[in-house]
Fold:
Amino acid sequence: MIPLTDALTSLGNQRLLEKDLAVYEGQVARYGMRSCVALIDIDDFKKFNDRYGREAGDKAIVAIAERLANRSRLGDSVYRVGGDEFICLLPEQSLESGALAMDRMRRSIEELAIPHEDSSSGFLTVSAGLTVLDAENLKSASELLKDAQAALSRTRNANANQIEGVDDDDSSPSR
Structure:
């Protein structure tokens, strides 16, 4: 059987995310539900690994994964989809309410105070790009993740430790 959880963090993995996104797409199309999708990235993680080593990097990933899972609401889902990337599915959330939830998670990761001398804050932080899947803007999973990646890229161009989203109704970024 193919595993559906990440070996390091025990969060859902890319395969489970793909299965769950297919379910979300169906619910959005059939029932008009709305879901916010957040792509979360640990800021300057390569520099962290280079300075502190892979073991420290793995410990940091586990701590951040636990914090994301513990700070999400019942019904939300968190997945580890890459080395230092996570996805959070927030059902029945608008872009604005999803941004509030992600900002709460972002601040809780700051509270971990994992030292990172190569970061402007002195600690490990995260940034997130958000998008929304709703009946008016049905998208494939790949389009959805592409939009979240574009929003995340804007946080890197601005500064780290931020939440950025795009509202497909007017294609304007919002924070």
In short: The longest helix spans residues 14-31. Confidence is low (pLDDT under 50) at residues 168-175.
